[in-house]
Amino acid sequence: MYDRIYGIIVIGVAWYTWYLIALFFIVHTLTKRKEKQYQIALESVVEELKDILIEEEPIMIENKLTLTDILKREPQYKDYAAVLDLLVELAQKRFDEYKFLVAKSQDETTEANFLQIISNWSEDPELHSEIFKRAVDTNIDMQTLQKRFAQRVWTGQVIPLGDGVRVITDDNTGNLPTGVSPVNSGLEGGEICFIISFIQADNYDEWYKNTFPQSEAEETNE
């Protein structure tokens, strides 16, 4: 009888030992799996951080300008075209965002309507900086740039003109009624301002007579 009880005890101990061994292997396997998952997750986070750091690495700009360049470099037609393209892009972006002021005329036969678009440096710092850099690198003449910008507005290359509208590029004051502010500053906090003067085409002849009376007098004398 004692031998039977002893045998049962031995078998029980053996089974219990195998149970502990199996439990150990199961726990060990699960722990390894979790560690592998943590390792994969950690590696993924590290790779994402590396990508972010690489993307946000500042681009160093090497300025090779001299004071002689600023004074004597001759801008070419392509230089004006490049700066104008950037200015048009900037004006269109602010116009699409409704960043403008409208002042309507009470009498278009004597005074044009007025549209002012303003772009602050903080709204588009990279584009503002690129405009200034290209303008100063090629020594753009601001008056020439302003007149050519006015021509782009007049031909509908800046904002849609619609039907029956005439853009005013000369109002007999000596100042441009349509144009862009000088882009001769690359400092933070600056702004670029676009001005567009316009009237209904039906009122243009009467407006012209009132704005350029000397031309009417010359025609009468002839």
Describe it for me?
This protein has 222 residues and is of the alpha+beta class. The protein has two domains: 1-57; 67-212, no CATH class. Helix content is 55%, strand content 13%. It has helices at 2-55, 67-72, 77-96, 125-137, 142-154, 204-211, 213-221, and strands at 100-103, 113-120, 165-168, 179-180, 191-200. Strands 1, 2, 3, 4 and 5 form a five-stranded antiparallel β-sheet that branches. Helix 3 (77-96) packs antiparallel against helix 4. The protein is elongated. The mean pLDDT is 82.
Q: What are the SSEs and their pairings?
A:
Layout: H1 2-55, H2 67-72, H3 77-96, E1 100-103, E2 113-120, H4 125-137, H5 142-154, E3 165-168, E4 179-180, E5 191-200, H6 204-211, H7 213-221
Antiparallel strand pairs: 1-2, 2-5, 3-5, 4-5
Count of domains: 2
End-to-end span in angstroms? 147 Å
State Rg: 37 Å
Q: Please provide the count of β strands.
A: 5
What's this, in brief?
Helix content is 55%, strand content 13%. The chain has 222 residues and is α+β, with helices and mostly antiparallel strands.
Could you list some keywords that capture this structure?
single chain; 222 residues; alpha+beta; 2 domains; 7 helices; 55% helix; 13% strand
